[in-house]
Automatic annotation (TrEMBL):
Name of protein: 2-oxoglutarate dehydrogenase E1 component
InterPro entries hit by this protein: 2-oxogl_dehyd_N, 2oxoglutarate_DH_E1, DH_E1, KGD_C_sf, ODO-1/KGD_C, THDP-binding, Transketolase-like_Pyr-bd
Classification lineage: Bacteria, Pseudomonadati, Pseudomonadota, Gammaproteobacteria, Alteromonadales
A Gene Ontology molecular function term of the record: thiamine pyrophosphate binding
Domain Transketolase-like pyrimidine-binding: 593-786
Top-level enzyme category: oxidoreductase
Function: E1 component of the 2-oxoglutarate dehydrogenase (OGDH) complex which catalyzes the decarboxylation of 2-oxoglutarate, the first step in the conversion of 2-oxoglutarate to succinyl-CoA and CO(2).
Key word Oxidoreductase present: yes
Keyword annotations from UniProtKB, A to Z: Oxidoreductase, Thiamine pyrophosphate
Organism whose genome encodes this protein: Aliidiomarina iranensis
Record-stated family: Belongs to the alpha-ketoglutarate dehydrogenase family.
Enzyme Commission designation: 1.2.4.2
Cofactor(s) this protein cannot do without: thiamine diphosphate
Keyword Oxidoreductase carried by entry: yes
Any single Gene Ontology cellular-component annotation: oxoglutarate dehydrogenase complex
Amino acid sequence: MQEGAMQAWIESSQFSGGNAAYIEELFELYLDDAEAIPSEWRELFDSLPREGLATDVKHSEIREQFREAAKQKLKQAGSSAANSEIAEKQVRVLQLINAYRFRGHQHAQLDPLGLWKQATVQDLDPQFHSLTKEDMDTEFNVGSLVIGKDTAKLKDIHQALEAIYCGPIGAEYMHIVDTEEKRWIQQRLESQLGKPKFSDEERKKALKELVAADGLEKYLGSKFPGAKRFSLEGGDALVPLMKSLIRRAGKQGAKEVVIGMAHRGRLNLLINVMGKHPNQLFDEFAGKNTTDKAGDVKYHMGFSSDFETEGGNVHLALAFNPSHLEIVNPVVIGSVRARMDRRGCKDGSQALPITIHGDAAIAGQGVVQETFNLSKTRAYQVGGSIRIVVNNQVGFTTSKREDARSTQYCTDIAKMVQAPIFHVNADDPEAVMFVSQLAIDYRNTFKRDVVIDLVCYRRHGHNEADEPNATQPLMYQKIKKHPVPREIYAKRLLNEKVITEDDVKQLVSDYRDALDKGDCVVDEWQPMKAHSVDWSPFIGNEWDVDYDSSISKDELQTLGEKVSHVPEDFKLNARVGKVYEERAKMAKGDRKLDWGMAETLAYASLVKAGHRIRMTGQDCGRGTFFHRHSVLHNQKDAATFLPLTAIDKDQAPIEIYDSVLSEEAVMAFEYGYATAEPNTMVIWEAQFGDFANGAQVVIDQFLSSGEQKWGRLCGLTLLLPHGYEGQGPEHSSARLERFLQLSADHNWSVCVPTTPAQVFNMIRRQQLRPVRRPLIVMTPKSLLRHPDAVSSLDELAIGKYQNVIGEIDDLDSKKVKRVVFCSGKVYYDLLSARRDSEKTDVAIIRVEQLYPFPHEEMAEVLKDYQHVKDFVWCQEEPQNQGAWYCSQHHFREAIPDGAKLQYAGRAASSSPAVGYAAVHKEQQEKLVNEALSI
């Protein structure tokens, strides 16, 4: 609006004194949604002082301007009651439109069973806004309502709002702060007037997919009665929803889609979306064994296939998943990030994560919140994800909302990241398909998470052997009478003359015939092409496979100069500067290397050789104990510099991120990343080792057993600070015993390195050895700066990690009467005490790898002690913790026949450590003296 026109408009009767109240209301509406009011008002409010528009301060200054304008106008022309009433009604209409955008979902027809009892929302009643029946034929400006015209009768506006916001789609998006995103959603939703348009061919395809969803469940129910399958029945629309998502994603350029879901509908998805051959599933139901591994139940299994779309074939990957329902979500996101990095995709356009949740689980499992919190962070963003809730309206047996959650919707958790939430009635497949397209388009446009709440029901109990009527009698009386989605949609298409009765019968018959043949039933299925990453070099290899880990001292010195170089204009913190001065001396060979320098050289040598590295953890940039300092911070402008990125112009990338304050989601993310990318060294470091407790489900269900259950290789490395320093029970133990208890089938390696050279060679071994299994490391705290825990460049250049380190002092082995085995920091306490006491008849042997136990190396070290009968295992941890209970059978097998093995350490305890420094010191001295027989 031109300046002169604006002034004339301001001076009109709209600003007369009687209109001050409605202008204030219009202004409040503007603050909620600027696009909801007519453009001339928006321009006026935009021109007002910005400090008066903040929503967290009073609007008194703005109101005073309104009053002053009204007073001036009264002097000039007086007020017009008629104009005032019309203008006020106009504001009320805009408020009604806004109310539907905010709260229309609460009156939407979402529940196929009609059981939802939503509270009455007064805001959606025109009378609440002082709009009467007499106003229904009055023309009003529609503001930003997208109905194809600028003005309309109130009755037509109200009818449009009901159709858009209170039909089979309930949209929650007004919590989004960004106006552009809200306007985008409004345009897409409102332009359809609640009736999305699809061609007859698209509608026939949707019916065919509902026939498939229903047909598989009925087939399995009759062929394998009583067998658990976690039927999709009631949520059949998940099949056309998923296929619509994949088609749309492929059309827009996606090359890979990674899917994570729990049990409900998984078998249906495998057959009717992924393209798994039905006869393979039938063999699994029949109990035919197809693997020499431990295996898993059929509704936990993953699958991969290629799916044809207009934009080319899309590779589909359904992640393996245990019964911990939501833990697969960060695994999927991590897998997608790995695929993005491999493809050089920064915005997620080529890889899409889809996670499918249960209504009880998404509200009840904390890892959901943790995963949402990752969505826009540098280390974990994937350009948004699609979250689908198969909303059965009941968990296992809990159906009352007040027992299941503390929010109105199970999806309310998504509002924390301002994700739009589209609730949709699963009995309306066209609404479902429209929402699927809306979700993909929003995700690809704004690179944010989006949630689809597929409101449905489950026709049977939690599983097919369950009796749901026992706990949900009214719901299941309703379900028993309710037609299946296929029947409802077929009747709709019959009424609209899109199909005939014979067409429906033919679809049902053809699908059953296809199942009888056992062949693929997915039209879009394509023979899977080679993956973009080759796992073959790592398949079938064991720990003793040959590999080249040699490195010259000259190369180490060159790398040392690179990692200790800081640009001249980069001002370091004084303490960090001292660390880098010392590292420069270490690189020249003037000082022995400490832990931080050796670890950094390991990473430098790997990226120089072309091995990508990814490290995350809550303090991993500098290291919790101020030892790593891989990410430097300029004290002048807070700019960051990573010396490891400046090793060589042709080096591999290295990424080191301080993570969000999460263990479970972050570790699961890194597991997912590592299972999708064997050529990257993936490392997660705990702030303190015991913090890994928060991710125990990841350790138990994925890391320790993923290969045995699902054949999934994974090279994830966990760095877990561990060591008894008198700091109390919470920051002493990384719970070594738990990892050893889970050790079997050569599932991972568990190491406790005690020197910088050992950590250097351990890290290189993990990446260079053609084996991709997890590495669990008990990393030190005090040893990071211990004067004896140092190594020379020559020791690093040996290129070999020693699983066992024998006696280092010049003892006469024939005079040795006792041999002490130990691991970790306690070695230095034992060594110091023995030297101080000048004992020469006790040898100390370090076990640097506790699993797989190094029997051959141990036998070599013990050759000179075959005469010894007295052996001791010494540990800092309480007797019921640490390595004693899980590893003593290995020690007993290693010692000579007739020798005895004793324990020296803390007494059994329910707590990992004492909380008092004096008691800790006393205990430590006692266990050391006992071990050495002092």
